[in-house]
Design brief:
The chain is α+β, with helices and mostly antiparallel strands. It has one domain. The chain has one helix and two strands, in the order ββα. It has a two-stranded antiparallel ribbon with strand order 1-2. Strand 1 and strand 2 form a beta hairpin. The longest helix has 21 residues. The radius of gyration is 15 Å and the shape is elongated.
Length: 61
Amino acid sequence: MRLILPVRLTVGEHTAHVGTLDIDPRERIGPQINGALRDLADAIRAAADDEHQEVSDDGTS
């Protein structure tokens, strides 16, 4: 049995669907969530380091 949960990231008034969290309830939950948060942090770092990423002056895009 596995639980697949949607993951959304909200910053201010903006919410984005960033993926899913696939949990095996027979395993310890903490390490599974920890791994998912590390993956999310890596993705945010990669986006922030992208020199082609456009950001508007008001931070909305």
